[in-house]
Amino acid sequence: MSEYIEPDRDGISVGQVEKKIHTFAEPPLEIVLESGARLGPITVAYETMGAINADKSNVILIAHALSGDSHVAGYYSEDDPKPGWWDTMVGPGKGIDTNKYFVICSNVLGGCMGTTGPSSENPATGRPYGLAFPVVTIGDIVKVQKELLDHLGIAKLLAVVGGSIGGMQVIEWAISYPEMVASAILLATTTRHSALAISFNEIGRQAIMSDPNFNKGDYYSGAKPDIGLALARMVGHVTYLSDEAMRDKFGRRLQDRDNLSFDFDANFQVESYLRYQGSKFVERFDANSFLYITKAADYFDVGRQHGHDSEVEAFANIKAKILTISFTSDWLYPTYQSRDMVKAMKKNGLDVSFCEIEATCGHDAFLLPNERQSTMINRFLKRVSEEETNAL
Amino acid sequence: MSEYIEPDRDGISVGQVEKKIHTFAEPPLEIVLESGARLGPITVAYETMGAINADKSNVILIAHALSGDSHVAGYYSEDDPKPGWWDTMVGPGKGIDTNKYFVICSNVLGGCMGTTGPSSENPATGRPYGLAFPVVTIGDIVKVQKELLDHLGIAKLLAVVGGSIGGMQVIEWAISYPEMVASAILLATTTRHSALAISFNEIGRQAIMSDPNFNKGDYYSGAKPDIGLALARMVGHVTYLSDEAMRDKFGRRLQDRDNLSFDFDANFQVESYLRYQGSKFVERFDANSFLYITKAADYFDVGRQHGHDSEVEAFANIKAKILTISFTSDWLYPTYQSRDMVKAMKKNGLDVSFCEIEATCGHDAFLLPNERQSTMINRFLKRVSEEETNAL
C-alpha cells in the first residue's frame, strides 16, 4: 500500500482540503467484482475536509455523481479559481458543516479523476485498460469505498450522502453495510433507471462508441472520441435541466439579438451553450469512464440485486435513518420514483423523512444553492448526531 | 410546368391514392424565400385521395411532420406492405373520410421525398445542393403548398390539418392565407419551440454535422453521415415518447431474459429498439433534410414573424374555425403551449375548440390510433362542412 499527501501549495491551507490516494489489491491481491471479474491493483483518489474526532463518530462519506470527483468542496489554494463541485453545501458553517464533521469523498471506481478506471494502466499490458477494464456496478464502486474506510480505520459513518448516481451509492451502502451506516441522505435519486433514463445514457454511449476515434476504446495514444463525448454531454445536460429552467435561462434568445442567421451556426443562445458545455467536458473527462459509469447506473436495480425483485425485501436489513429529497422539476428521476422507494422503506418500519422540494431547475437542483435543502440536511445531521451520541 | 401521374400498379386502385408531382418556378422564374434567397425550379411531390366535388368545397390539405412525406394514407397496390403514415386517420370511413373529402398531402420544401430539398440538383452546379440549399422557413414551406393549390385551381380549403411540425404549417396557413382557410386542425403542436425542443434538435444537427462523412453537406457521391443521422433519430425518438410509454413498452426488460451481459452491447430492450430505429431511419431519410426541416421548426415563432412579438396580434386576421388537440404526456410540445395559443386566439374572438386528450404515448400520440381524436376531427369537419354549405 502506498499513500501520498499532496503538499499544501505555498503552505496555504484553504478550506481544510486534504487530497490523498490509497492503493490496495496490489499483486498478488485482487478484488472480485459483481460480474465475477477480478481487478487489482486499485488506487482510490479521495479528499477529506474537517477533523475527525476522537471516537471517529463524526465521519460523513459523500458520493459523487457521473461527472464529479473527490474534490467535493473548498479551494486548494488562494489562487485556485474554482472550488469543489459541492462547495455550496459542504464547508465550514454550511449545510454539511466541516467544523463539526469530517467529510470524505472519493472518486468512483471506473472514473478518470485519480481512481482506477479504463484510462488507468492495465498491469497485464502496461497500457491503459480501455475496454479491457471490467464493467463495474454501483455495488463494486461501494465495495472500493468500504475498502478505503477500512484502511482509514473508520468503522461507522454518521452519514452517507449523495445525489443522482451518488444517491445510488448511498442506497447501496445502507443495504450492503447496514451496521456501518447511521444515516443515509438521498438526493434526486432512484432505485433503478427508467427506460427513459437508460435511453439517454445509451444515446450518449452510442455517440461515443460510433465516434471514428473511439477505436474500440483504445484511443489513449491518439486522437480521442471528443465529438462523441461532447454529444453525450449535451444530451446529459438537457436531461439535467428542465423545460422551465431552460425557458428562464435561454428562452428563444438569439446570439445576434434580432437576427436569424439563416444558417446552421449556433443561432439561439441555448445552442451556443450546449456546444460550449460539450467542448468543455472533453477537456476534463474520459469517454470510456462515461461508458462505465453510465452502465453502472443503468444496471443498478435495488430490487433485482438485493431483494429477489422486491424493493421491500431489499430494504429489510437497513438500519440507517433516512432523509430523501426529490425535486419537482426533475424529470430524469421524477418524484414518483422517490415516493415508491420511500413506501418500500416504510413497509420495513424504517425511520424515513421524505421531502419534495419545489424547484424549477430540474435534476441539477441538488447541486445548486438551495437553502431549504441545506437546512434540511443540516438539521437531519444534527438530529442523527445527537441520537448517536445519546445511544452510546 | 411538368406533371407526371404514376400509373396504377397492375390497374389496382387501392385506397384511392394518386401520386403526382408538380414543378414550378422554372427558369427564369424563382420564388423569394423569407431569408431573401431565391430558389427555383421547385418540384412538389404530392398525393391525393378521394374525389374533388364540383364546387371544390371538400378539399382538405394535410401537412406532414419532420419525417413524413406525401404518402399520407392508403396502399399503392395490393402487395404494398405498408400504408401511408397516417392511415389510421385518413381513408374511406375514417376520421378524415376520403369518401367525403378530397385530401391533398405534399412533401415539404427542404424534404427528401420528392419535393425540392438539399438532395435535389442545384441548377447552378448540376450537383446536389447540399448546404448551398437556402435555409427555409415554415412560411416558405406553406408558400410552396399555396403554389400547388393555385396550380390545382383550388381557391379554398375546407380544412388544413397537421400535427407537430405539420401543425406549425396549419397555423401559418391560417395566418398567411386567411381567406383560403375555412378551418384549421392543430394537433400536438406549438406556436414556437421551447429552448428544450431547440436543444434536442440542435443535438441532432450537431450529431450529423460532426459526423466525419458529413463533408460540409456534400456527401451525396460518397459515404453518408449515417452515424450522425441515426443518433439524431434516436434522440428524436425518445422525445416523441414518454416516461410512461417507455415504461410500458420496455421497462427494464433485458434482451437476454435474466442476464446482464457486463459489456456495452445492447443489453436492455430499449437500447436495441433505439439502435434499430436509428439504423432504419438512415435508409430512407437525408441527413441534410433533417438539418433544414428542424431548423425551419426552430425558427418558427408566430408572434415574432407575424405580430411584432405578440401572438394575439399575429392571430388577428385569422378567419378559420379552429380545433386544437394536445396530449397529456407530450413533453416536447406540452399542453400549456396549446393553452397559451388558444388564449391568444380567443382574445381575437376566434371560433376555437380545444381539447387535451389523456394519452400515455407522448408527442407521438397524434399519429397513433386514438378514437377520441378521430371522432373529434370527424365531427369538427362535419360541422365546418355544413356551416360552409349553409353560408353559400
Descriptive report:
- Two copies of one chain form a homodimer.
- Chain A has 392 residues and is α/β, with parallel strands linked by helices.
- The first copy, chain A, folds into two domains: 280 residues, Rossmann fold, CATH 3.40.50; 107 residues, Rna Polymerase Sigma Factor, Chain: A, CATH 1.10.1740.
- Chain A is 34% helix and 16% strand.
- Chain A has a nine-stranded mixed β-sheet, with helices on both faces.
Short description:
With about 400 residues, the first copy, chain A, is α/β, with parallel strands linked by helices. Chain A has eleven helices and 15 strands. Chain A folds into two domains: about 5-190 and about 300-390, Rossmann fold (3-Layer(aba) Sandwich); about 195-300, Rna Polymerase Sigma Factor, Chain: A (Orthogonal Bundle).
Which labels suit this protein?
392 residues; alpha/beta; Rossmann fold; Rna Polymerase Sigma Factor, Chain: A; 9-stranded mixed beta sheet; two-stranded antiparallel ribbon; 11 helices; disordered N terminus
Give the N-terminus to C-terminus distance of chain A in angstroms.
Answer: 34 Å
Name the helicity range of chain A.
25-40%
Give the domain tally of chain A. Answer: 2
How would the global form of chain A be characterised?
A: globular
What is the oligomer described by this structure? homodimer
Task: Predict the CATH topology of the largest domain in chain A.
Answer: Rossmann fold
Structural class of chain A: alpha/beta
Please mark out the parts of chain A with pLDDT under 50 across 5 or more consecutive residues, or reply none.
1-13
The chain pair forming the largest interface, with residue counts per chain, is: A-B, 55 and 55 residues
Biggest beta sheet attributes of chain A: 9 strands, mixed
Percentage beta strand of chain A: 15-25%
The CATH class designation of the largest domain in chain A is Alpha Beta
Give the radius of gyration of chain A.
21 Å
**How is the largest sheet of chain A built, in terms of strand order?**
1-2-5-9-6-12-13-14-15
CATH architecture designation of the largest domain in chain A: 3-Layer(aba) Sandwich
CATH superfamily of the largest domain in chain A: Alpha/Beta hydrolase fold, catalytic domain
Continuous helix count of chain A: 11
Order of helices and strands of chain A: EEEEEEEEEEEHEHEHHHHHHHEHEH
Q: What's the rounded overall pLDDT mean of chain A? A: 94
